[in-house]
Write a structure and sequence with these properties.
203 residues; Protein THEM6; globular; 5-stranded antiparallel sheet; HotDog_dom_sf; Thiol Ester Dehydrase, Chain A; THEM6_lcsJ_thioesterase; 7 strands
Amino acid sequence: MWWLLWVLAALLALFSIVDVWYFLRVATVILRAWFQPPVWDVTAEQIVAGRVTPNDIDMCHMNNARYLRECDFARFSLYTRNGVFKAARALGANMVVGATTIRYRRALCIGEGYELRSRIVTWDDKAFFLEQRFVSTKDGLVCAVMYCKQSVIRSSPDKILQHLCKRKVEIPEFPEDLQHWVNFISASSQALRAESGLDEKNK
């Protein structure tokens, strides 16, 4: 009987200090993507179906933070199926989110189904740039659209794709709206570096 109480206490402590459901969901998403057919075109759009549950809502519509969380899971699936995760691991690289921006166009309400459409739009020497769209299955409206800068550490997007595709991959052009966002990130970074005196220290 005492061992059962210890197990329950340990589980309670674990769920109190760690977002257990997040990591369980990540494992489930990666496992499911692993058994799905691979996607050979790294820039191809991939679709993950979803539905707004009571756990996702505030005021009967999807909570703003939930959109970003669902985008996390969709990227795990994307990178697993197109082989980017595998290539990055082979090169000893890691990928982290460097920036995101999201535009909400219409609320997704409780019980409403949606498709989360993710794709790699382009890349530069340091990061992949992705677009992720929440499309309502009710009427096909794009309810939210997010851009994500996925920074590559200890390697580069070009090296990852060369390892994956066994050839040099041509970089797609930056769409105008994405380029405006990238310019904003660069300007913000320069302003913050100047504010903290990093530019002067590096001279």
